[in-house]
Amino acid sequence: MESIKKSCIFYGAVINPKSLQSFSVSPQCLLAVDAIGNIDWIVDDVEPHTLQDVLASKGCIESEVIALREGEFIIPGFIDTHTHAPQVPNMGTGGQYELLDWLENVTFPTEAKFSDVNFARETYTSVVRRVIDSGTTTCCYYGSLHLEATKILADIVYAFGQRAFVGKCNMNRHCPGHYIEPSFEDSVADTQTLISYIRSLSPQQDNSSQEPLVQPILTPRFAISCTDDLLSSLGNLASSDPKLRIQTHISENKSEISFTRELFPSASSYAGVYDMFGLLRQNTILAHAVHLTEDEIDLIKSKDAGISHCPTSNFNLSSGIAPVGVYLDKGIKVGLGTDVSGGFNVSILNAIQNASVAAKVCSLQTGNSGSESSSMSAIYANKQLSIPSLFYLATIGGAAVCGLENQVGSFATGKSFDALIVNVRDEAGNPTIWGLDDTNFTNLSIEDKKKHLEGWLERFLFCGDDRNIERVYVQGTFVGGRTFRR
């Protein structure tokens, strides 16, 4: 890895998400990163003839300046709020199944292979490298149920310099005999061991407000796979550790919902199951949320839990379309997830593209109908998602779901420099992006340059792939991308 050991300054185009409705564009931005990888200062719209004066005013006349070329720009790194590391090997298969049959026939057999630690090490090395090079700077990883394999996953994530939450699945019922935890006691004991192990990798510094790169996360697979005593024990563990994140699935598939209600008749709803056991709170990440009831939406909002929208998986496994606009109108935190291998791509770009399609389908299905009062109050429900909204969900939205909105997701003084240098020039080799035209950018006004940058961002979001991701930075360290030397 190549670290920034002293103040390093980037000069060029920077696109920064601000809200669901806006992002800022600075064609000639100076962005300084300090020696520990935090953003030191930002100055927008610095003309070339004033560059040295601005650097001198910051006391940085001797500092290294990395100048971006036309067709390159910096954006915050993508945040994947839901994916399964051990499922990458079977990515792109099993699309003929719905969720429960897919688990039985495709997913559980693959995950069971991770009992072999050598297989786990070889596979996870490839998995994490692919995820980083696809532009994901923060990732919420589900491991398998195996303690040692999940330790290996955490080791590799840490060694590669990615920011991540890593959890082993808790699953002690309704799983195959060859792939199930023997008891709830074993499940909880292994979970506690993993939490201690991951926290030993990068301990929280007493004088630092920033959280470690790699953190543990409680991972009850979903309610169906956990007995009452397991969920109760995990709830007790969570209550003793308020900073510990929780990730699980909810309301992905109608058959799953029906089975869950049968297993937990005393719960008010699927969301009520997690709430009943103390697992629904402000740092809970709920994947899918395709078929929530109004009461569940209100409960999730009241607990300030977040939702991971996984549109590719929801299409691929015929689960349905999550009404993300409704959740946004309610003020619920929403990010994007790839959900490999229900989803068939490790890149958040693919999730962005399918999130756009999903929102358009919702809009087409409803025809933007509804009462006049409800349509007036709805900003996002049953409407297309704009470019600013999609960009926000992939960055700030995901950061908020992970409880990291004060550290990553956008560029601001004091935040971590988790970023991508994007290249939409023809040399990147992506035939689906039409590269630079013959415009002489030197002679364009700032406003015209901003319009071109907005167009490049849109093309990247809808046609881009890993070939367009020149460099990936996490906490100021160059950790991946097309030009990264392994």
Automatic annotation (TrEMBL):
Residues 73-479 form the Amidohydrolase-related domain. Pfam families: Amidohydro_1 (PF01979). GO terms for molecular function: guanine deaminase activity; zinc ion binding. Coiled coil: none annotated. Binds 1 zinc ion per subunit. One of its GO terms (biological process) is guanine catabolic process. Its cofactor is Zn(2+). The keyword Manganese does not apply. Pathway: Purine metabolism; guanine degradation; xanthine from guanine: step 1/1. Keywords: Hydrolase, Metal-binding, Zinc. GO terms for cellular component: cytosol. It catalyses: guanine + H2O + H(+) = xanthine + NH4(+). Belongs to the metallo-dependent hydrolases superfamily. ATZ/TRZ family. This is Guanine deaminase. It comes from Psilocybe cubensis.
